């Protein structure tokens, strides 16, 4: 099947149509896009656990243990948690949302296309036009992915903002949020490792100055589309990373699939909180104890909200391409052999970008 025909049928496809790309077990079946006909089951009673990361940051050994158990339980139950007490100023999150709107609404499309996404290392970095974020589903979102090299984080004398940003003044605005979120990476990873019975510092080196993907998602108002959308705004998927930080979006749409009940959960987190979810890297190294959780973005239920754009700024945490992903100690007989992050990542995401995206070495 060619790429255009795969995308055309994407609103009717199910995840198992692309199972050949998965590098961890995903036996459950779901539609890539919401059905919109009432045929899918929703659970309006389930609540994603809220975890206070302030306990880790300020509560000493006892606080770190409490947070580890709370976060680990949430990850094992559903793979999602809502983080509070993180200390990131609401102004940073709000300015990143404003800057995202400015980037997509003031930079002409011709100029955005000069930064069209291409693979660097393991990650497809750059601009994605609407309906072209993947080849398997016409997502109603424009995206822009910036990895570590796009930011002046390491004071590289060869760094040039214009190589990544159509307006270099955007870089420090987004860097402020990225730097703040970097401070949460080790607390989250150490807590998960502690919950799994591992040395909490096992990944400290790998996650210091590590690779990441900071994605800007701009969902234009749906009432301005030429045709009424048949499906949702973003396909159902699992993140490929260790975990993702998502400042709570102002506009509803995030839905989480519960593999235990086979029902969808509408997740609307409080303003200022950060939504955390785990990805395929984590499922692999935890030997399937912590499952990468399916999620998608739906159309707003309130017609009035469809006149507003939806903005989200997730940060996906990876390891560098030459690191080896292997099952952590103490997790039972390994189901998966060791694999380079480059091979694992690109073979998984080839489902979105085409089979030739995968690196097989």
Q: What's the helix and strand layout?
A:
Elements: H1 3-8, E1 50-52, H2 54-58, H3 60-77, E2 80-84, H4 90-106, H5 109-113, E3 118-120, E4 123-128, E5 142-147, H6 170-195, E6 212-219, E7 234-237, E8 243-247, E9 254-258, E10 263-266, E11 274-278, H7 280-285, E12 295-297, E13 310-312, E14 315-317, E15 324-325, E16 339-340, H8 341-353
Parallel strand pairs: 1-2
Antiparallel strand pairs: 2-11, 3-4, 4-5, 5-6, 6-13, 6-14, 7-12, 8-11, 8-14, 9-10, 9-12, 15-16
Helix pairs in contact: 3-6, 4-6
Please characterize this protein's 3D structure.
The chain is of the alpha+beta class and 361 residues long. It has helices at 3-8, 54-58, 60-77, 90-106, 109-113, 170-195, 280-285, 341-353; strands spanning 50-52, 80-84, 118-120, 123-128, 142-147, 212-219, 234-237, 243-247, 254-258, 263-266, 274-278, 295-297, 310-312, 315-317, 324-325, 339-340. Strands 1, 2, 3, 4, 5, 6, 8, 11, 13 and 14 form a 10-stranded mixed sheet that branches. Strands 7-12-9-10 form a 4-stranded antiparallel sheet, with no helix packed on it. Helix 4 (90-106) packs across helix 6. The longest helix has 26 residues, at 170-195. It is globular, with a radius of gyration of 19 Å. The relative contact order is 0.18. Residues 1-8 have low confidence and may be disordered.
């Amino acid at each position: 099947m060619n790429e255009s025909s795969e995308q055309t049928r994407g609103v009717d496809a199910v995840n198992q149509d692309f199972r050949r790309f998965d590098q961890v077990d995903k036996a459950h079946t779901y539609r890539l896009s919401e059905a919109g006909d009432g045929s899918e089951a929703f659970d309006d009673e389930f609540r994603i656990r809220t975890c206070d990361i302030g306990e880790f940051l300020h509560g000493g050994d006892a606080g770190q243990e409490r947070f580890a158990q709370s976060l680990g339980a949430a990850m094992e139950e559903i793979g999602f948690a809502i983080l509070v007490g993180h200390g990131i100023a609401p102004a940073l999150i709000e300015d990143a949302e404003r800057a995202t709107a400015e980037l997509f609404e003031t930079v002409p499309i011709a100029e955005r296309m000069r930064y069209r996404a291409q693979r660097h290392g393991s990650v497809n970095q750059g601009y994605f036009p609407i309906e072209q974020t993947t080849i398997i589903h016409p997502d109603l979102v424009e995206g822009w992915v910036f990895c570590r090299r796009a930011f002046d984080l390491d004071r590289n004398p060869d760094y040039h903002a214009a190589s990544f940003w159509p307006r270099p003044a955007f870089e420090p605005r987004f860097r402020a949020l990225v730097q703040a979120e970097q401070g949460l990476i080790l607390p989250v990873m150490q807590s998960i490792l502690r919950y799994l019975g591992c040395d909490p510092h096992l990944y400290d080196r790998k996650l210091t100055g590590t690779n990441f993907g900071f994605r800007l998602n701009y969902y234009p108002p749906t009432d301005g589309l030429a045709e009424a959308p048949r499906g949702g705004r973003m396909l159902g998927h699992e993140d490929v990373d260790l975990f993702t930080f998502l400042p709570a979006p102002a506009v509803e749409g995030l839905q989480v699939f519960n593999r235990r009940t086979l029902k969808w959960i509408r997740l609307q987190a409080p303003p200022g909180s950060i939504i955390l979810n785990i990805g395929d890297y984590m499922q692999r190294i935890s030997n399937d104890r912590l499952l990468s959780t399916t999620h998608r973005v739906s159309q707003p239920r309130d017609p009035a909200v469809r006149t507003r754009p939806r903005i989200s700024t997730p940060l996906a945490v990876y390891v560098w391409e030459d690191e080896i992903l292997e099952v952590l100690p103490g997790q039972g007989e390994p189901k998966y052999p060791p694999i380079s992050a480059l091979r694992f990542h690109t073979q998984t995401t080839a489902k979105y970008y085409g089979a030739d995206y995968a690196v097989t070495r």
